[in-house]
Every structure is written in structure tokens, then in C-alpha cells.
């Protein structure tokens, strides 16, 4: 319940509509409660006294009340829908914007499928909760309260006899409502798992087919689907027992009224009209309990989903701005200094991903980072734009600790081409302009030329207006990478980070890309992660990382003489032995340069 209260902030913009809906509901309840009294009047004053005029007038009044009630109900429904849909829209927007603030560490801890359920299923559950609260959910207790008052007013003795039964009925509803909330929470968690499996298979359908793993993935989905079905069935079965129990209570109440009321009527204590009115009030009291029983799943589901939504909204990004963060500093020359930098992805790791990294990258310098898979190369460059925060030590940008800079300021001077290329649905131009929407078409073409993408783009069906499908599936891996590089270059960053961003292009194209980058770089500082040694031969300096530590640093020529690890990598990729003479090494270095030019 506390989470529902906390989400009241999303109700504030719709206070007027919600208030009007409740006022209309109160008027509707008042009219509904008037009907049994009018029935009593028809029986006692019209039928028993053979007064046709009373029957006609009262019948017409009941008809008029019914028409007015219909109009009020329509107005209440319309307002309730407006409020519910508005809150659902605002919740989806708030969740989406909150997710945009998540750091990489936050995103590592939550699955995409879970976030999708929060934005869809959980939001819909809260929407249903709001709408039902403004309609049936509020109408039921109002009807109950009004009916109880009028039951006592009609026949105190009958009301007293029914009091224990009404208390038992209310206790049943309360028990089921609170018991179902944790059950619905489990249902939503099972749905999370099901949605995650579905999302992974939709994204990786080609891989599944390529490895003929359809049966295995079908088994994963079947297991998740069965878990979800079993839990949903348990909830439905548990809920199904409530309605028969409440129905028994209603029938017992009717028997008590007819039996006790008939005895009182025979003694002249109550009139037939009073018994009929009392019976109607009893039904009006018990029917809302039945309605609330059926709506208990909406309440329980809404409360469970409210907690899950609040969990996302309350998540604190692992990387945040310092309260007195500087707004300037990232537009300097681009000097990067790593001072005793260490990093763990989480506190449970026994070995650090990076340990005691000391490195200075001068403005305008191109530094290549080389090492085995899992050595920590990508982690190192991800620390510069603060995708993660260092665990120990610090990183300085132009003499300022990057944690003292506002993230907007820091990222304004940095462009990253990640290891995994991400393209969005839209035209080629839209994707290249993603980081600079105001850029002219001339700048777009210039960036594409620098990324060696211009020629293949012109060969597409509609050139720069060609539509890129979801995740760029209608382009090759190398084409996607070149568009991603063009997207980064268009922003004219002071610092360019290339995280193995040419792994899908051939050696000749890779060489042309690096030549183009070198020609337009100017004073741009570049950090380049690479797997292929041919990619790094022309770097100003090469950093060799092994198990999270810098084990060698220098130019290609020097490392080939001094670093056994670099010699091993070079020999394994280009076939050059470590113990070459100075002259032979010069020839091999020249050959290596030709490979990338």
C-alpha cells in the first residue's frame, strides 16, 4: 500500500478530473440507494392501499432516476479513463527517462526484459487500479456504507441479526485481498523471466537458427512459460474460492432476512415494503463485497506492480554529478591522466578488472590499447566518459578529476564508438546525425567520407535516405561500424574513443579509415582499443594490458624489442619472430605499415 501512496504524485496533475469523477460517483451511489426506498413506497403506499397514482408517480420517478444515473455513470467512466490513461502515460515517460539516467553499472544489474515489463505490464496494472478505484473500487465501499446506514434505519432488529454475517463477509474479502498481493508479485516475476527469454530470442533469432539451437531455446521458453502458467493458475485457483464463499454469505443473509423478517411481519413489527427494501439494501451491501472480491486481483496486482515501478524510480544511478560539479573543463586540449586507477565491477569480485593503472595521454596523441580478450581494454576506455566510476585512484581531464565535472560537460567533448554497434530505425542520415541533429548534409557527407562510408552509402537503394531497419539488420557488420564511426566524427569531439570499432572491416578498408582519421584529427586525442596488431602499428604509443595491468608501453618499434608479450602477439598475428635483427625489424615494420595503408 505504501507504494500506491507514493505514486500519488502522478495523480496530482489530474486532481480535478479525479475529484469530479468521485463527486459523480457519490451522486450515483445516492441515486442507487434511493431505489429501495421508492420500491418500499410503491408496495406500502401504492399496492397495499390500491393507490394507482402513487404507483405511477413513483415508477416514473424511478425511471427518471435510472436515466440520470446512466448519464452520471457515463461521465464517471469517461473521467476515470482520462485519469487512468494520463497516469499510465506519465508513468511510462517517468520510467523511460529514469532508465536513461542509469549508468552502465545499473544496466548490468537489470535485464532488458524486466524493464520492458515495468513499462508495459506493471504500468497497465497501475492504470487498471486507478480506473477501478475511481469507478467500482470507490463505489463499492460507498454503497456498503450507505446501505448499512439505511438497513439500520429500515429495521434495526434485522440489521443487528445480520451484523455477525456482514463482519465475516468483510473479513473474507480483506483476507483474500492482502493474501493475493505477494502471489501477484510472484506472477509478475515469472512474467519477467518469460519476457526476458522472449526478448533474448527475438534479438538473437539469427544466431539461434545458425547454431540449430531452436529446440534448446524452445525448451528454455517452455520452462519459463510453464513457471508463469503454474503461478498464474495458483493465483486463479486461490481467487476462485472467494466467490463461492461470498455467495454462501449472501444466501445465508437472504435466508435470515426472509425468516426473521417474515416472523416480525407476522407480529406486525415490519411491513412487507420494509422487508423488500431491507432485502434490497442487503443485496446492495453484499453485492459490492462480491464486486470487491472480483476486483481483489486488480488491487493486488496494482499494489505489486506499484512496488516494482517504485523500485525502478528509486534506483540511484551509480554514476552521478557532484553537487558542486564544474560546468566547464571538457573543452580543453584533451590531456588524460590515469593515476593509480583500480576498478571492480562489483564488490564480490576476488580479482580487480584493472589494478594500479598509471597512464598519461597527451593532447592530440593517438594511444592504442592492446591485449588479450578479457584483459581490461574496454573497461579502461569506458572509465574516461564515466560509463563506470573508478573504484580507486582517479582520472584527470585537463587537470580536473572527471568526477568533478558534470556529465553533460564531460560527454560533450567525448565521442565513443562502442564495441557493439547500435543503429536505430531511420535513414542513414538520421543515424549519422544522431549526436548532432543540427548538422548540415555537407557535414554528414564529410563525416561519412572520413569513415570510408560514403561510397557504400551511395550504392544503397536511396543513398543517404535509405532506411536502416531495426538494429541495422539490412547492413553488413562493417557497414554498421563505418556508420557508427561517421556518427562519432560528426560531433567533432576533442577526445575520440574507438573500442575495437573496425573489427568487422577488411584490412584494406581499416587502413583507409585510419589514414582518414589521421588526416582530419588535428589536435584530437584518440584512444583506440584493438585486437589486431596491424591496427595499432601507426599509433603514437601502444599500451599493452595483461590481466588488468599495464605490462608494456611505447612505440611499436620499441615494444617489438623490449616486450615479450607484444612480441608474442606480433608473431602470432603477422608471423614475425621476436629475435630479429634491427635491419630485419625495420623491414617488417615497413611491411606492417603497408598492410594498413
Textual characterization of the structure:
This protein has helices at 2-6, 15-47, 52-100, 104-109, 112-134, 136-154, 156-203, 205-210, 214-240, 242-266, 272-313, 377-382, 407-412, 428-432, 441-450, 454-458, 477-490, 507-521, 556-562, 564-574, 582-596, and strands spanning 336-343, 354-361, 366-371, 392-397, 400-401, 414-417, 426-427, 467-468, 495-499, 525-530, 541-546, 549-554. 63% of the residues lie in helices and 10% in strands. It is α/β, with parallel strands linked by helices and 597 residues long. A 6-stranded mixed sheet has the order 6-9-10-3-11-12. The protein has a 4-stranded antiparallel sheet with strand order 2-1-4-5, with no helix packed on it. α18 links the parallel β9 and β10 (525-530). It has 2 domains: 2-313, Up-down Bundle (ABC transporter transmembrane region fold), CATH 1.20.1560.10; 336-413 and 493-596, P-loop containing nucleotide triphosphate hydrolases (Rossmann fold, 3-Layer(aba) Sandwich), CATH 3.40.50.300. The radius of gyration is 36 Å and the shape is elongated.
